[in-house]
Amino acid sequence: MLQAAKVGRGGIVLVEGRSGAGKSRLLGMAVAAAATAGFGVAQGAADELTQLIPLAPLISALEPSGRTLPADDCLALAGPADQRLLLVERLLGPLEQRVAQGPMLLALDDVQWADPMTLVALRSMTRDLASYPLVWMLTRTTGSGDCPRLNRLFDVLERDGAIRITLEALDERAVADVVTDVLGAAPEPDVLALAGIADGNPFLLVDLLEKLKGEGVFHIADGHVGMDSARLPRAQVVTQERLNELSERTRHLLQVAAVLGRSFSVKDLAEILGESTIGLLPMVEEAMSAGIVEPAGDQLTFRHDLLWQAVVGTIPTPVRQALHRDAGEMLLKRGGSAVPAAAHLIHSAGRGDESALRGLGQAAREVLRSSPQTAADLALRALELSDPADPDWVGRAATAADALTAIGRLPEAADLARGALSKAPPAQAPHLRCALAYILLLSGRPADAVAEAESLLTQHDVPDDLRGIAEWTVCWGLICLNDFGKGRLRAESVLAERERHTDAAVVGALLLLARFAVADGRVADSFAHLHEALQIANSGTVEAIQRPYTRLLLSLNWRAMRQFEESDIAIQAAEEEIKACGLTVLAAQPALFRSVVKLAAGRLDDAAAEAQAGLMIADELGTHGFIRVGVSMLALIAMRRGDIDAAVRHIERYHSIDAAPGMLFGSVWERWVMAAVVEAQGDPDRAVDILHAIYTDKEERCWALLTTPLTAAWMTRLALATANRPYAQTIVDTVEYLAQSNPDFPALATTAAHARGILYRDPGALASAAADQPEPWARASGAEDLGVLLSTTPGASAREQAIASLDQALDGYEHIGALRDAARVRARLRALGVRRRHWAQLQRPAFGWDSLTDTERAVAVLIARGMTNRQAAARMFLSPHTVSTHLRRMFSKLDIASRVELACIVAEECPDLLKDT
């Protein structure tokens, strides 16, 4: 793997096995080899007492000082923001810059102790940096408990191509080789029998042989080694004897040190023992001479995990718990972060232990925004140990509810919030009611969310920040409910008395009016409301959650008007706000919005990659509330490509997702996709049933035809195919009204012409649509509809025009990869006596430079110019995840595995594009 990295190829090595199998030794040898070869090397490790600190192993490896996340960083993360995205970005950006300069090894030991955020970061970082000469080496100890999250990570990495090495017990031949190495002679049968008690464990075997060798148990003659004693102790007994030979004071010192962790600070050890550092010196020297501990940077560490475990095993459980309690108290009294103390308190706290409960609660609040999974574990543990009558129970429940909300465990969060609300004193009730309203909104229960928030707003003396969140929740809940009557009244009343409301309420009201303006067919008014909301958000005091929503709505409007670059710009700005504000719940949204824009622009590969990126982000961060849009996108893309079975599988997955239907603008889009797939399966009547509300409700219809313009021609055609001309007439009347009401947006007139041409069999209208549609697929669809109409018109001239229109449609479909539509058009041409070769077979091979799509070539050129994935993504309005996906596909098509090889191919194929570098 290191040799491959020298020529630009990265990779992942996973090493696992039981304690003593040699994982750390193998990792250490890899680090030494990489350093000798001139690699950049970053090395870190996890341990039991740092598993509560977010990203501790990665930060210790990548931060220049080798420090873990300090207390002041944790405290700076307070507030409503979820900082997981920023923390990962803080590591990923510099790491990408670093590995762009040359090959690197990043080695992490003992990841079985890694915190949840480290596992999330490892999945994201290994995927995003797969094209760089970065070798990852991760080791973990097995056999001491199951960690589903870690098992899943290793399985996913292996499926993606990681090499997985399991260090099994040494076989008989290997044991004999080890004995020969350690004792300097070939072993006799009695020595091999002795070695057998180590059960093939390398550490125990060497430890056993070296100790007995020092005691003179072996004799060597004629190149063979035998035993002078028939004693066959257990290997673990040998380790225990090593401890028993120490003085009593040193044994006690090691027991206390073991409670502090496998690695420990001499200062902590001296403080908890009440000794001076000078007083500890003789005991430390004895422990080091016996090979129990050794220096590790500015700390001491047990020489091996098995030695640490052996020492821990000598401490009776009650004593060990008491020592953890003492250690936790010591760290709490020292001040600063409570997280290190919580690592001890979680092992020692008893029911009703107020000091320990305060420490656990403080630690949970510290890591809530950086590692909500850890915060949930700590807060739930504190609740287990709390008496329900304890006055602090409500606050602990609130923290646990916040953490559970962040990681997507919404039903549990709602139950806790309700339970706490029933016991909360008046001062705490507003926060809990506000939190519950937000949970209900995320859970897809906007009516309940609105009721909860409105209940809060009837109370007096609600703090402005909570009032703003509650007012925002009401506004967004009414948007989700499509409650035009109540929503309009609320928005107008807020704007009529702006001075009585928070900026958050004013922005929420403007977003409501923007949404309703679209439903009324007033596009310019919708833009005006959104721009005003954006101006207030940029200058006033609004809730962080509102900032990206405004830009996402703007991107939706721009896409509907087929102004794709403006839509991309709005999405990119929203993505930056999501990261800056710590809105992890919305982290998947930019990729999902980009997916729809890329599809509209005719870039199916990009659309699929962005949809997959959105789904992966949602899965990794546990924010599953809005992923139905991504699944519906994949269904539509599969249908466009002609894979109806895959489209049906995506729809089945869509129905299996326990998420809010239609949240964040997805309702119309998702219904249309489901209808399109059903129609493709040959059931147009059912497709009409799925779209019944759009056909029959004016506001639904306006919203659908403006936000998903493709539906106009398609629904007109569907209604005619099912002999439902009134439905078709309704669609045409509505889209013509929209075009007439919005003359500043010519794309609407083109959409109206397409639908009108289908209904009235008007070749002029269809020709206009085929010529003027800014959306490639819609343009090809218009040409196809024109060709179909002309093919039924008598006369040779009409036939020639029909063939020309169908050829235009075929070229358009094939250019964007809409293979199902292209196949249908080829069939229409065959019916006219014309045969066309399959474009994909004729023009685009499966492998080589010519197999790359336009987007892949553009990415290749930017990478060849030395850009990082992030720089290329920003240039092309893509997500870094999508750039990484394109690179993986290119590497496969070009049979390469490095950016260096890609740059060479680009230089050969299109050297002119690199001249300005």
From TrEMBL:
<dbReference type="InterPro" id="IPR011990">
    <property type="entry name" value="TPR-like_helical_dom_sf"/>
</dbReference>
<dbReference type="Pfam" id="PF00196">
    <property type="entry name" value="GerE"/>
</dbReference>
<dbReference type="GO" id="GO:0003677">
    <property type="term" value="F:DNA binding"/>
</dbReference>
<dbReference type="GO" id="GO:0005737">
    <property type="term" value="C:cytoplasm"/>
</dbReference>
<feature type="domain" description="HTH luxR-type">
    <location>
        <begin position="845"/>
        <end position="910"/>
    </location>
</feature>
<dbReference type="GO" id="GO:0005524">
    <property type="term" value="F:ATP binding"/>
</dbReference>
<dbReference type="InterPro" id="IPR000792">
    <property type="entry name" value="Tscrpt_reg_LuxR_C"/>
</dbReference>
<keyword id="KW-0067">ATP-binding</keyword>
<dbReference type="GO" id="GO:0006355">
    <property type="term" value="P:regulation of DNA-templated transcription"/>
</dbReference>
<dbReference type="InterPro" id="IPR036388">
    <property type="entry name" value="WH-like_DNA-bd_sf"/>
</dbReference>
<protein>
    <submittedName>
        <fullName>LuxR family transcriptional regulator</fullName>
    </submittedName>
</protein>
<dbReference type="Pfam" id="PF13191">
    <property type="entry name" value="AAA_16"/>
</dbReference>
<dbReference type="InterPro" id="IPR016032">
    <property type="entry name" value="Sig_transdc_resp-reg_C-effctor"/>
</dbReference>
<keyword id="KW-0547">Nucleotide-binding</keyword>
<dbReference type="InterPro" id="IPR041664">
    <property type="entry name" value="AAA_16"/>
</dbReference>
<dbReference type="InterPro" id="IPR027417">
    <property type="entry name" value="P-loop_NTPase"/>
</dbReference>
<dbReference type="GO" id="GO:0004016">
    <property type="term" value="F:adenylate cyclase activity"/>
</dbReference>
